[in-house]
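Here is the promised in-class demo. Please do not try to memorize the tokens; focus on the logic of going from shape to residues.
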């Protein structure tokens, strides 16, 4: 009786891992790490990676909230110290570990120097600055308390990041269970399929 395809794949994978797994897996892991480091060390690759982080489900919100918290905290401190808006944006861009956010603050400087409101500038980056952020900055500009509003934004996003990280395990746990369950199911099918096929021939 010919073994089912899933069983043949399981046996072949087991033989391969037993024979070459101790050599191949470390080499593949080292190669993957080296290629990744080379990719992100290039400006274009780093920008692609930072863009990808903003699109990965579950993690994109953490990336946004973390960067918004750092930028808001920096802007609040600098504006309270009397630093001009354009200089505050320049310095705040350096605290972000995401090139997309750093580029957005840097590109905003030339518009601020022309007298354009910060709110109008940030509206050009809807994938980086949520509507609630835009609205709160707009209120700060109109009331003349932009530093206070950035301080409130920093507190808001810092608490949000903390809560998200604390609840991350409850979000990842079902995904891990489904993944492990899928692998166990495939192994079970691979093991039981020959038995079922043999029983049919009897």
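The designed amino acids, position by position:
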């Amino acid at each position: 009786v010919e073994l089912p395809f899933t069983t043949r794949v399981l046996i072949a994978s087991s033989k391969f891992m037993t024979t070459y797994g101790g050599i191949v897996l470390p080499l593949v892991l080292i190669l993957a790490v080296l290629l990744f480091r080379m990719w992100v060390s290039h400006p274009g690759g780093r920008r692609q990676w930072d863009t990808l982080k903003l699109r990965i489900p579950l993690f994109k919100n953490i990336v946004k909230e973390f960067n918004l918290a750092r930028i808001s905290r920096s802007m609040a401190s600098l504006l309270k110290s009397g630093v001009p808006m354009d200089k505050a944006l320049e310095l705040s861009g350096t605290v972000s570990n995401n090139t997309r956010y750093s580029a957005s603050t840097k590109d905003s400087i030339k518009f601020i120097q022309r007298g354009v409101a910060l709110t109008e500038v940030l509206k050009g980056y809807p994938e980086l600055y949520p509507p609630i952020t835009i609205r709160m900055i707009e209120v700060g500009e109109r009331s003349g308390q932009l530093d206070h509003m950035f301080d409130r934004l920093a507190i808001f996003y810092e608490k949000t990041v903390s809560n998200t990280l604390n609840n991350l395990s409850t979000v990842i746990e079902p995904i891990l269970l489904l993944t492990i369950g899928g692998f166990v199911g495939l192994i079970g099918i691979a093991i039981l399929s020959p038995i079922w096929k043999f029983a049919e021939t009897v």
